[in-house]
Amino acid sequence: MNVSACESLTHTSEDSVSNDLPEPLKEPSIIKQNKWVSTLKKAFSSRNFLKSLILGQCLSLLLCGTGVFSTLLQIENVNVPTAQSFLVYFALGIVFTTQLAYKPGKRNLVNILRSWDGLKYAIIGLIDVEANYLVVKAYNYTSITSVQILDCFSIAVVLILSKLLLHTHYRWTHYIGVAVSVLGLGGLVAADVITGKNHDDGTNVVLGDFLVISGAVLYGISNVAQEFVVKNFKKSEFLGMLGLFSTFISGIQVILVERDELSRVNFSSYKVVLPWLGFFFFLFMIYICMSYVIQKTSATVTNISVLSADFYALIFGIFLFGYTFHILYVISFIVVIVGVAVYTLRPTDATAEGS
Question: CA quadruple 287, 279, 301, 120: dihedral positive or negative?
Fold first, then answer.
């Protein structure tokens, strides 16, 4: 037998001995590495993750659509966010409030309005209207980068309120998942800066940042309230009551705040009408789909999933607005998805109690 054959036999024998060693005798680093690989494989192949991924990315695409059409409206100097939302609330009222009015049983429109729940829904409607208005208005005063970063305050609000009001029990994997997803958003923002997408520093950064934070806090409150309702009652009830109260609130606000700007909008131009209709359709679908996504997952998963919307906005922006592609967009998108996978690795324990 030659020397190379002896060496091969020796290595083979050593490998077989190594493989036969019990777990305690193997290298600790190898054991940990194998556990992490097994955990990640489990996370990416779990039904919970796949459901959260598909639903969350559909919502991100819809959110991207509203952003694209809103940008097209801004190009035409149309800046009436409450008026744009008013049509959506009105449509929700026609579809779901009408359905709620003819619903038999205790949870119909009349009984809800007679109870304290009616006042609670009125507050939720006010919160939702002002959240939309504040965040959109902030673009007039601060940079897109600031809006993207500070809008993450909604995730913190959802985490805190879910723990306090819905009694959600978070594990360390949930906090890591949120942190990883936010890190992915940071990469998306950094890519925007590198490609020169966010070149406007804003006219009043302090005011703009304050508006973003305020809007993000209100978004968080609205999302947690929505999670409680859709998991304890029905999605149609939340959408119906939201449509009822938000239509009146946004209508009054349009008259008081946006009347002059609305009168200057050129509705005879297809460059205004078509983006307005597109914005209406996508935002209407967002409200319907978000209720379903929150019901099937949670407000927290929904908020971290839509962080990837900026990636889809880039894809459309390349063709519509001449945005520049950067590989960091793809890497950041993957990081966001990994964060969602880590978050959904373990389910949260929520009793959904509250009032």
Answer: negative
Dihedral sign of CA atoms 198, 199, 202, 207 in order:
positive
Burial of 124 (0-12, 13-18, 19+ CB in 10 A): buried
Would the CA dihedral through 255, 133, 73, 270 be positive or negative?
Answer: negative
Distance CA 316, CA 20 (A): 54
Q: In degrees rounded to 5, what are phi and psi of residue 234?
A: -140, 155
What's the rounded Cα separation, in Å, for the pair 141 and 73? 17
Q: How long is the chain?
A: 355
Q: Say whether 349 sits in a helix, a strand or coil.
A: strand
DSSP class of residue 258? Answer: S
pLDDT tens string 169-199: 888 888 998 999 889 888 887 887 787 765 5
Half-sphere exposure of 5 (CA within 13 A, CB side): 2
Q: pTM for this one?
A: 0.79
Q: How many CA atoms lie within 13 A of 190 on its CB side?
A: 13
Residue 240 near residue 96, CB atoms below 8 Å: yes
Q: Are 39 and 345 in contact (CB under 8 A)?
A: yes
The Cα diameter of the chain in Å comes to: 96
- Choose between 101 and 146: higher pLDDT: 101
